[in-house]
């Protein structure tokens, strides 16, 4: 009989022709395979695409976010005449001042912390400030009929209970609220804010009395270069400023680095979510292995027939490999489509979680190719083993029912290929990670989890095999099913264990982070920080606090801001910048001076200077930060303070407990370093635990009434702001981990489906011998409950260890074991394993024995 194949089909390679014929039978048994690959690829593609759209949004809007092509920032002081002249030679200049202040309603005596911005007539150089209502920004903040206007975010009106047209006091001046800010083009460049934004004019700023020598105010000078300004023009202007005005002490940023802190956070967050997505893909890979194993198990007769007709093992392997890859391509295409579309509807949702710029939706080929690479490598890694074993199916399997599985390992060539693929996966995960060290820990942890879970599965089978026979029939059947030939015990333990381990890890990290921010405010944490107290009024301030809160404890220190210029004689720009200490070198740091050492005995190395020391500048440095930066006693650091470049020698190191929330500084200088320099005083007030909200508000009102230019920061409100952001981020993490849990459920379902044929065989034999459905259901419940409980115990231990490492070593927080997580893990394991197990076996118990007995 002539073949019915078309001429085109006959020209196709034999493995491809065979694979296409196999696929004519439909996708039965491959739905879990497709779902697992599609889910993992979609997760990685979505995270990468959304991240790239956000980064591109920052890059494309760099001028508007920064406020110019270049930004020059100074702390405490305005630019001098010669500096302004130089900036003017570069292009158009806009002067902006930012500081924190207290805004007060004159009608209801309420007040709140605000982020105050004073702008000149040239602001903004790029973009536009959108105001709800009628009028432009400069019209709304101008002085009219003796009244000076301000515009603010809606949060100010909500906190003070005011409306447009109502008076609002800031410092010594009273303004009229004339509009509400809908959008601010350069908002992202200012970092995290502790209060609503308020904008006034630079002329009105003088009337507030907030600007005093040493006040904590940042003056930013944005420059718009003559159009068209190419990246080379921007870089040339920046180099010119660094060369000609090297002593200015300003921090220079360009439009290509408009929001470095935010960009770093996006990269770090992307790395974490990508690793979670990769975990989902790897967990799904177990489902791939289960699905391929189950499918090939059902094709043993076909394989044996082909071998009987002369087909070689290599042809069998290539044919089924092509078929698996074709299905994997379909699955990856589904995942890639979903991932590519995500930026179009995820940007607005992320704007409620992160203070991000408008995303730029698009098809990002590099991110999609990366997700595709992960998908292909994962599919191959988990399909090679069952494919390699399938080629060894003997032709004799055609002549008898073949229940037991082949125990032979795949040939060495397949083991070598598998090792190369695993190394490629690890290389991608580590090589492209924002923090390779964390990615390396992830890879090692994942490999360790696979090995340990595999050993746990083997150990469970070995122990079950050696247990004495129980008189309880259901228990005896359950134990026998756990260690019988072809048992799915290793697959169930592996798939359920990986998913539950991640669930416990994420839950413990989330719980500990939330606990640190909400439940564990340090006992000695101050109730308030008071900023910009005039040095001459410090004693009067302390007296006022003692009168308003007699039970409170007040601590005050001199406060200046400075920026690192060089470390050990090496300019900061050229100094090695470890990720953990990047925050210290970026921007400006708070600094102080002291004649006497701290009372808490925190000095760990070196000696404190004498109280009357009058030699070259000395500095006490935080020990932890010094270690991260490679600094030691005797090294020199150079900082710029108030426009002066100061080089000091590290005299000693001291421990700093940043979690105490009290007054802490990276650097404490000898007093002679800043002799005669203008500065303000920073104070903290700690109220007793019994003091309620009324006492705190009363203190704030008393301070604001007597010192309207002093800024009050209530610690509880500041922590609430941070906690709100963390809670929103936690939802993104939970959603990502939910994808992994979903993959675990699919894998578990696939593992149970893989044993379908064997369970039919066992059920038929047992029912023939008189076993009732009730007894078989009892045996299955016990089997799945035992496997679920043992796996949950392992996941609890492994997840707790992983959570401990992340919280203690990576986040450097105190780890607390949360018992509720233990019960949730064990409960979810039992519900998932028993529930899915019974769903998968219910149809098995309904099969009639007669049809199967004829084949035995």
UniProtKB/TrEMBL annotation:
Q: What is the lineage of its organism?
A: Bacteria, Pseudomonadati, Pseudomonadota, Alphaproteobacteria, Hyphomicrobiales
Q: What is this protein called?
A: ABC transporter permease
The cross-references to Pfam families, in alphabetical order and at most eight, read: FtsX, MacB_PCD
Q: What UniProt keywords are attached to this protein's entry?
A: Cell membrane, Membrane, Transmembrane, Transmembrane helix
Q: Which organism's genome codes for this protein?
A: Microbaculum marinisediminis
GO cellular component terms, alphabetically, are:
plasma membrane
Tell me the membrane topology, using the record's own terms: Multi-pass membrane protein
TM segment ranges? 30-50, 272-295, 324-346, 366-385, 413-434, 440-464, 485-509, 731-755, 776-805, 817-839
Q: Where is the signal peptide?
A: none
Q: Name all MacB-like periplasmic core domain ranges.
A: 34-237
Indicate the principal place this protein occupies in or around the cell: membrane
User: Origin, by domain of life?
Assistant: Bacteria
Cellular localisation:
Cell membrane
PANTHER family associated with the record: INNER MEMBRANE PROTEIN (PTHR30287:SF1), MEMBRANE COMPONENT OF PREDICTED ABC SUPERFAMILY METABOLITE UPTAKE TRANSPORTER (PTHR30287)
The answer, when asked if Nucleotide-binding is one of the entry's keywords, is no
